[in-house]
Specification:
The structure is a single chain. By secondary structure, the protein is of the alpha+beta class. It folds into two domains: about 280 residues, FAD/NAD(P)-binding domain; about 110 residues, no CATH class. The protein is built from twelve helices and 19 strands. Strands 1, 2, 6, 7, 8, 9 and 19 form a seven-stranded mixed beta sheet that branches.
Length: about 450
């Protein structure tokens, strides 16, 4: 069945040089960098606050080091410094000798991101989903939004899709891939949560690590018999050993299609029910957890993969682990191939990288790969950039570049490119790369070893 929607005039809600669709980590840096370089910017965000996975999904770790030095700076460093000054971010104990460098409080990052946007003069409109793009020829002229007062349009000269799912690009007709080649499944999702009422002293007195190992063995036994939900064993063991009240736990997997709203609703409900099952067992069998209760679950599921737009350059596994350098580089990436099982077991290649068999998925210490501008551009829509986890990558290439700091590198690169292109009267895809790279360096971006075109 179909419904006929008659054509009609739509009132313009806002207009800008650059319209950023999505206010996650990538969208924030895209909007801030474009505005700082002279463009008027409107940012549209579907949730009540900006920050995306970092704030609404409680995913609170950043990856900035090549295990010898920090290779991701720019707006990432600025956000880090601001959060550190407020006590909202702390360095990992292994800093800078591990790729994971910082852990932050999501509530604080909401404020840091919004301050960056406000100070740059970005007009931020939350509670609005960037809907259908209005396409004329090979350009987007507006995106439609449904407000409480009716349908409205947001017009612009350049549009940046930072939706995470590539919604604007896909609706504009840009080709994309979804899932891995063999079965079409995307990486597993995780619901973040925190507990309250943990007694660390009782945990130590009750057996400490030995008690955790006994509990994990029982969890595996029950899971394998179909009597207990799947769980990420490595992360679960770490949290059971070390977590205190309000720490964020990353161990609760589900799998399915995040683009199907009904299925995503069901999976989010399922994840919360699985947490209840976890806690029931822990209260009964884990010393120090007898009075533990659920303190918080994430507002949104932590999604790692949906659409991957077909761009001018496609980042793949070999480019990542081979530390490939690119002539159109806009920054560096350092994270391993961290692929969470698409079948929802909770296993991830990240836990294997310290073993000889898994080392192939990790970059050598002191090395990093380039994130190319070409993975954010396409040949279908001339005034559209795509940043974040929906940019052009293979299933395994995305398993590295999807993390927040890397998405922020894309955002800063494309936002800066948009402003420079507008200033020079050029299309986004024809921005002068040398000028873009020198501008990024001047803005604090680490950008080294760039090969000649």
């Amino acid at each position: 069945m179909k419904v006929w929607v008659p054509s009609s005039e739509v009132e313009v809600l806002a207009e800008a040089d650059v319209v950023v669709c999505g206010g996650g980590c990538a969208g924030v840096t895209a909007a801030v960098s474009a505005a700082r370089h002279g463009a008027s910017v409107v940012l549209l965000e579907r949730w009540p606050s900006v920050g995306g996975m970092a704030t609404n999904a409680l995913v609170n770790g950043w990856h900035r080091s090549d295990r010898e030095k920090i290779v991701i700076n720019g707006l990432v460093e600025e956000a880090t410094s601001r959060a550190e000054k407020e006590g909202w971010m702390a360095r990992d104990v292994r800093y800078p000798r591990d790729n994971c460098t910082h852990w932050f409080q999501p509530e604080g990052m909401r404020i840091v991101f919004q301050r960056l946007l406000d100070e740059a003069g970005v007009r931020t409109l939350c509670h609005l989903v960037a809907g259908e793009p209005v396409v004329e020829g090979n350009r987007i002229t507006a995106v439609l939004v449904d407000t409480k007062r009716g349908r409205r349009a947001v017009t612009g000269r350049i549009f940046i899709d930072a939706t995470g799912d590539g919604d604007v690009a896909a609706k504009a007709g840009v080709p994309f891939s979804f899932g891995r080649n063999e079965d079409g499944l995307v990486q597993g999702m995780t619901l973040m949560f925190s507990l309250w009422g943990i007694d660390p002293e009782a945990r130590r007195a009750g057996g400490g690590d030995a008690a955790v190992e006994k509990l994990l063995a029982h969890m595996r036994e029950l899971r394998d018999a179909g009597k207990f939900p799947p769980f990420n064993e490595a992360n679960g063991g770490h949290h059971l050993r070390h977590a205190c009240d309000h720490d964020l736990w990353n161990m609760l997997p589900v799998n399915g299609n995040p683009l199907d709203e009904g299925e995503l609703t069901r999976l989010t409900v399922l994840a919360r029910e699985r947490l209840v099952q976890y806690l029931k067992l822990w209260r009964a069998e884990m010393p120090g957890f007898g009075k533990a209760v659920i303190n918080q679950t994430a507002y949104a599921m932590g999604i790692r993969e949906t659409r991957r737009i077909h761009g001018r350059v496609t980042l793949d596994r070999e480019m990542v682990v081979g530390a490939r350098k690119q002539p159109d580089a806009i920054g560096h990436g350092n994270w391993c191939i961290d692929c969470h099982d698409p079948k929802g077991t909770g296993s991830t290649t990240y836990v294997d990288v310290e073993d000889p068999a898994g080392a192939k998925d990790r970059l050598a210490p002191g090395t990093s790969y380039h994130i190319p501008l070409g993975m954010c551009l396409n040949d279908r829509i001339a005034n559209l950039g795509v940043v974040g986890r929906c940019a052009s990558a293979t299933h395994l290439g995305l398993a590295s570049v999807r993390v927040q700091t890397h998405c922020m590198v894309m955002g800063q690169g494309v936002g800066t490119a948009a402003a420079l292109a507008l200033g020079a009267g050029r299309e986004l895809g024809k921005v002068e790369i040398g000028m873009l790279q020198s501008t990024l360096r001047a803005d604090g971006v680490y950008l080294e070893d760039v090969p000649a075109p």
